[in-house]
Amino acid sequence: MHATLDELNRLDRAEFTRRVGPVFEHSPWIADAVWSQRPFASREALHGALCAIVLAAGAEKQLALIHAHPDLVGRAALAGTLTRASAGEQADAGLDRLSPEEIAQFQTANAAYRKKFGFPFVICARLNKKEAMLAGFEHRLGNSRADEIATALGEIFKIAELRLRDITQLCPPN
């Protein structure tokens, strides 16, 4: 559902949270928390405020946000139970057209990553293709847990920016 920034700024808290909440995977608390900061002068200002809520939320909520993301080519993807946004993003990256061998590669990489860090590998699928994602697993497995938390949040912020653009894509740029 598309809206102008002015329309978003005028929404009551419940409707704002309903519309903006999906920008962050299964985490409408972020949109709810930013509502009181309205009006936003631009889409970028809204995105920045949403990200600031996450950064100020503390480690427990940040980890919960990371855990809200599905594994790439994981059980939810294979069962068809991803959110509409995640399904579209994974499909755009070609992850819905993998060979059995490629699926096995992703599942092995997911398992190794989860074993080391305790949360799913998060990457902005719309800005990467399968080869880059697989290389990302390999590269990022060498990181520390703290570095990976920061990297995952950065990827989540990219995802959120693109999803926020989708909500307002038919509107003039702000």
Main attributes of the structure:
UraD-like; 63% helix; mainly alpha; 174 residues
Walk me through this protein's architecture.
This protein has 174 residues and is mostly helical. Helix content is 63%, strand content 0%. It contains 10 helices and no strands. The protein has helices at 5-10, 13-20, 29-34, 43-56, 59-67, 75-79, 84-92, 100-117, 130-140, 145-167. The two termini are 17 Å apart. The model has no long low-confidence stretch (mean pLDDT 93).
- Radius of gyration based on Cα positions: 17 Å
Query: How many strand segments?
Result: 0
Q: Which residues sit in consecutive blocks of at least 5 with pLDDT less than 50?
A: none
Number of helices: 10
Look at the helices and sheets and give the structural class. Answer: mainly alpha
In CATH, the homologous superfamily of the domain at 69-150 goes by the name Oxo-4-hydroxy-4-carboxy-5-ureidoimidazoline decarboxylase
CATH class of the domain at 69-150: Mainly Alpha
Shape: globular
Largest sheet: none
What is the terminal separation in angstroms? Answer: 17 Å
- Please tell me the CATH architecture of the domain at 69-150 by its name: Orthogonal Bundle
How do the SSEs run, as a string of H and E? HHHHHHHHHH
